[in-house]
Specification:
InterPro entries: Aminotransferase_I/II_large (IPR004839), Class-II_PLP-Dep_Aminotrans (IPR051798), PyrdxlP-dep_Trfase (IPR015424), PyrdxlP-dep_Trfase_major (IPR015421), PyrdxlP-dep_Trfase_small (IPR015422). By secondary structure, the protein is α/β, with parallel strands linked by helices. The protein folds into two domains: 129 residues, Aspartate Aminotransferase, domain 1; 226 residues, Type I PLP-dependent aspartate aminotransferase-like (Major domain) (Aspartate Aminotransferase, domain 2). The strands form three sheets. A seven-stranded mixed beta sheet has the order 2-8-7-6-5-3-4, with helices on both faces. A three-stranded antiparallel beta sheet has the order 9-12-11, with no helix packed on it. Strands 1-10 form a two-stranded parallel sheet. The longest helix has 25 residues. It is globular and about 60 Å long. The two termini are 29 Å apart. The relative contact order is 0.17. The structure holds pyridoxal-5'-phosphate.
């Protein structure tokens, strides 16, 4: 999609900075919506179908995709709709652990996974990922083991990001099974945020297929660029008694997500192939023009986690997201809120022309 049209968008990605800044920060995609989504939403609006959502279709549509893409049978599982993934994570916590129960995250991590539980009154502990950005299962076992007993109630909750944002790591079945084993042993509940699952370049393992007693949140929002028409499903073996104030979906969003899951498989395959090309463009560029930047191509997501620890500007100064924006007109996401001040996160779900222009701006500051 051309820059001129993207600049007409009013979403946060395109309205936060002025016309001299290229925005490759928040996780929105610079693509047209898939035609079946446009058609389904347009027809729904034309027939005035904007009442309360009846709760049908989305669960089945997701089940078909889960079976086809991941061999995951959700038929026997319980599901409940929530307005979005993050409200679902907090509502799930509220339903399955006691107030004040410690919440653990593998850090660096998508900031709201730490912030929202903290704001809801749960003490949050960060357990560092390994240097390769993977779950450090030994460190997690130790952290789980140190949680004080709460009688029959869970001692803690671990918020799994699967695939992991920002490193783009896809956790393996063996890692998930081991995580399940240590969580079970220490009475820790696992809640998985699987919002990026459909944007995987490697085989994806749903947490619930490896950890029977986990809870998992899914949404088509990231894969089909529907964060402005949002809905998510919370999946679990047994029903989760989440607050009725949260347990509902929005009709138009449900129609959009159902059309995405039912009719847009080929669109998604094309998008994944385009993203694979962008990932290659980005990887080649960094290796060739800015090898000082630490970078491992993500196994999932359209987010690149760039390590600027070794990079410095012309006057030897540290390069941050603010420096890149002010000096090169490039808006990336600062790593600070994720838990790593040396990193920035770049969203490569854009055209090759915009991506190349952004990379040239980046290299002009760090090289
Ligand atoms: C890992 C992760 N979880 C949740 C969200 C936000 O989801 P929602 O808007 O459905 O709360 C994002 C958005 O980028 C994300 O990357």
């Amino acid at each position: 999609m051309p820059l001129r049209l993207l600049r007409q968008r009013t979403s946060v990605k395109w309205s936060t900075y002025g016309p001299d800044v290229l925005p490759l920060w928040v996780a929105e995609m610079d693509c047209d919506l898939a035609e079946p989504i446009v058609g389904a939403v347009t027809r729904a609006v034309q027939r005035g179908d904007t009442g309360y959502w009846a709760g049908k279709h989305l669960r089945d549509a997701f089940g078909e995709v889960a079976a086809a893409r991941w061999g995951w049978d959700v038929g026997a599982l319980s599901s409940v709709a929530v307005p979005n993934v993050m409200s679902g994570v907090v509502a799930c916590l509220d339903a399955v652990v006691e107030p004040g129960t410690p919440v653990l995250v593998a850090s660096p991590v998508y900031p709201p996974l730490a912030q929202y539980p903290r704001q809801a009154g749960y003490p949050v502990h960060r357990v560092a990922l390994t240097a390769a950005g993977r779950l450090d299962l030994a460190a997690l076992a130790e952290a789980f083991g140190h949680l004080p007993s709460r009688g029959a109630a869970p001692r803690g909750a671990f918020l799994l990001c699967n695939p992991h944002n920002p490193t783009g790591v896809v956790h393996t079945r063996a890692e998930l099974e081991e995580l399940g084993r240590i969580a079970r042993e220490c009475a820790v509940v696992v809640i998985a945020d699987e919002i990026h699952a459909l944007v995987s370049y490697e085989p994806f393992t749903p947490a619930l297929s490896a950890i029977r007693e986990a809870y998992a949140l899914h949404s088509a929002s990231k894969a089909f660029n529907l964060v402005g028409m949002n809905i998510a499903l919370l999946w679990s073996a047994d029903p989760v008694p989440i607050s009725p104030a949260i347990a509902h979906g929005d009709q138009i969003s449900a129609i959009a997500h159902t059309a995405a899951l039912r009719e847009c498989g080929p669109w998604l395959d094309q998008a994944l192939s385009a993203l694979t090309n962008r990932r290659r463009l980005l990887t080649d560029f960094i290796r060739r023009e800015a090898p000082i930047i630490g970078f491992a191509p993500p196994q999932a997501t359209y987010l690149a986690w760039l390590d600027l620890a070794a990079a410095s500007g012309a006057r030897g100064e540290r390069i941050s997201a603010t420096v890149l924006r002010e000096r090169a007109g490039l808006a990336l996401t600062s790593g600070t809120a994720f838990g790593s001040a040396n990193h920035v996160r770049l969203n490569f779900a854009t055209s090759p022309a915009i991506l190349l222009s952004a990379l040239e701006r980046l290299a002009s500051v760090v090289a």
